[in-house]
Amino acid sequence: MPITETDFRRALSCFASGVTVVTTVDAEGGLHGLTVSAFCSVSLAPPLVLVCIEKATASHFAFLESRICAVHTLDETQQAISERFATPIQDKFVGLEFRPGIGGVPVIEGTLTALECRVINVFDGGDHSIFVAEVEKTQTREGDPLLYFRGSYRSIA
Fold first, then answer.
1. DSSP 55-84
2. What is the pLDDT of residue 9?
3. What is the phi/psi pair of residue 131, to 5°?
4. Most exposed residue of 29, 50, 67, 121, measured as fewest CB within 10 angstroms of its CB?
5. DSSP alpha helix (H) spans, the chain
6. What was the pLDDT predicted at 16?
7. Nearest 5 degrees, angle CA 135-CA 137-CA 139?
8. Which tens digit of pLDDT belongs to each residue from 57-67?
9. pTM: predicted TM-score of the whole model, two decimal places
């Protein structure tokens, strides 16, 4: 008997993950971004990461179209940024400090990490697309990460 979506969500909630925001820019220069928990490193040589984005998400088309993105790891003080990018509001970038990265992708200032990437492959992953991207630039700073565990934000402390 297959498991239910509720059972699967409950089981996955037991895996603590860092909180990331992934951003891109579409062909018309529109900025897009969303909070993503499905992120991981793939390879050191070449430097590859993967990000899974739900196909029903309004920004999904922009990631497919642009083939560039920035992945930001949030610190423990940036829960509001995670919540902003997790909600379907029109302009998520208003009042947020960011700079243009490769191809004009918005790079959010002050995050623990910012990885500027070019998408090299997209794979079908059920209701998500799996984007594999090569990292071209990195930016890091000191701090403790924002974590997500059992449906709540947490910190290391």
1. TTSTTHHHHHHH-EEEEEEPBTT-HHHHHH
2. 86
3. -100, 120
4. 29
5. 5-12, 60-66, 79-86
6. 84
7. 115
8. 999 999 999 99
9. 0.93
